[in-house]
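Hi all, long-time lurker, first post. I run a small reading group and we've been trying to get comfortable going from sequence to structure in the token notation. Rather than ask abstract questions, I figured I'd post a concrete chain and ask someone more experienced to write out its structure so we can walk through it together at our next meeting. Sequence below, copied exactly:
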Amino acid sequence: MPLTALECRKTKSSPNSPSFRTWGACKLWVYPTGTKLWRFAYRFGDKQKLLAIGRYPATTLLQARMERDKAKVQLDEGRDPFSCEAPGTN
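-- Answer (accepted) --
Happy to help. Here is the structure in token form:
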């Protein structure tokens, strides 16, 4: 079942380490301080990488999905999304 905006708002972290809400390869990292960050995990050139998409709620669930989709297109084209322009500038 896909992640919803309500789940994003209600997600809390554990006291000692970040917790995650996941859909696909995109995750909402929730830190003990309350900070929530969108990140996209992918593999490029036999290396596991993590692309920061943005901070929640400034970057909404819909925006995070759009940025994830852009990153997937770049991967399909053989480009590393991390070395491309910052999310939202394409």
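A couple of things your group might point at:
The chain has two helices and four strands.
The mean pLDDT is 84.
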